[in-house]
Input
Amino acid sequence: MRGPAIRAIGLITGWGVGADAVPPDAVAAAGGRRVLSLERPALDPERFRRSPRECVLGVAAVAAMLEDAEEGPEAIAGEDTGFVFVTAAAYAASNRQHIEPRGSNVYFPYTAPAAISGEVAIEYGIRGPYGILIGGPTAGADAIAHAAEMLEAGTCRRVLVLGVEIFEECADLYDRAGGLDGPLVEAACGLWLEPGEGALTLSRGRSRRGGAGGARRRLGEMLACEPLAALALHRASGRQGPVEIHAAWRGETASLRWSHAPYRARRRAA
Amino acid sequence: MGAVQDLAGSSSEGRPTPRLERIAILAGGVCTPIGQDVDAFWSALLTGADGISRIERFPVDDLRVGNGGEIKKLTRAIEWSRVPDCRASRLLVSAADDLLSQAGARPLPVAPERLAVVVGTALGGVEEGERALAGEVGRLPRALYDAPAHALKRWLGARGPAITVATACASGATAMGLGAELLRRGEADMVVAGGYDGLCRFVLRGFNGLRSLTRDRVRPFDGRRSGLLLGEAAGLVLLCRERDAGARRLGTLLGYGSASDAAHIAAPDPEGRGIERAMRGALAQAGVDAGDVDFVSAHGTATTLNDASEAKALRRVLGARRVPVNSIKGAIGHTMGAAATLEAILCLLAGRHGQVPATLGLEELDPACDLDLIQGAPRALRPRLSLSTSLGFGGCNAALVLQGAA
Output
């Protein structure tokens, strides 16, 4: 498929804001902490009075992406912007809150993964084609490929790919369930994709060990956000040429390869 | 990407939209409250069977409404020890077992590495989370929403990707659209696509709390409609590229469209603009005009707002022409992630059998929903081209354009 260009990236993680905040080694930097949490962003308390933390983090990641693009919200509003949201578990906290009733049933709609993307779509007026994928890092790779297909099919002029993962409220459950290694690093990452040049290939395989993607050593466990955050790290490295992102989840692997560096130069860098 | 053939339609802003390679639907498989195979499902729809009953599988006495489209017992002869003890996974496997029977191939005639699974859900394995938090800790790993898709993949012996989509109650349509995309991209040679959701206290409590559930019967597009009832089901289709399909098929997926409302978390856009964009997108991808549509399987949940907004959107898209419309939610309830796939299968069965089931529960058409609703009895009609619409929480809208087998 045609390789989409990456116009902008907004990355917020438990390590801080942007790729520069990500340490060289997540385990060492975590210093024994199980969860690297993100504070609830201080957005309009009235507008977001019912929105759980994961929704507001999604909105904040898109704001960071727009800042990276040096554009206002109007640049992504309307029918010409497609939207692909991806997460493995960001809905789990709201699910748990509904199962162990601590609040009103007016919050029930927020238990759906679609509430996170819905809140972002409302905030920015995104009305184009959309998709919501559920899964770990391979779903993050699928989300990027799906967005590339939307662009190639001509159903929109740009696509927002957004990943959100939070862990704090369910960390005890992840520990009891097992299977997630390393520090759990909360993250929200928005990618602005638009038509580009060259090619993007998605290769799949199987991995008995469900091994980590190449960027996980630095990032920690970010589930579906891992491929998106890996692109932020790669862009920050300044390396040129083809880009490869690897992901693994539940015994499946997915690798994305751009035939050339996909990043559009930022105005301030130009 | 595969086979961009020509420019077929245009987007709402006039961009030419390439017509994509068509996708054959080889067979369908279902697990529903009114039938656990396609033939039983179809007969029940035609005879007006009512799948709504008092829910028995978990306590509902403390809830305002305790009725729904519950499947009392899974009746297919399946080796259940090979399937996780998880309602969602078992609904999926039951539908898949029917799918294999309908396809007449067990196992499917495709290399395991080239068989993909794409399924949609509104609730995933949430009941597993509910039970885990009640003390059955061993169920925790199955609480993530993508777990049932992987259970289905294992049961099928597939080794291609297993993808879960969660566009709320539009999920079944999204899964079929994404499955088609995998085929066009050459990532698989066959895709088992569809949707599922089981009933559990989590969702019953939620919809009860929202006062969305009716104490009456479900009455889609009726002036007296007072809400929906939930149902549980799974619906799956077997997809392959048209050029790889033989003559035996259920139909063809011509187009898929989606759009976000950007209006409200739990309610549709009152004007139905999002579902209108989704329908126009699906028609453009199919390379057909609204004037070609012979039948619409509507979302038709029987909530006041959904039916009114959907009717407005349908009138704008279809114009003055009276196109027959139905909704099956009066018969089985709103089956959430399964709904769109079941309705797609219905469209294709109508094309095969030359009859369209009536809208169970509809007695007095709401003048605000002035459409050609099929009511009272099935209508003799063999739709060649059908349109299926789906809406969900978060402002998710999706539409499918389907062609029945000649």
Q: What stands out?
A: Chain A is about 30% helix and 25% strand. The two ends of chain A are 28 Å apart (CA to CA). The mean pLDDT of chain A is 92. The first helix of chain A runs from residue 26 to 30.
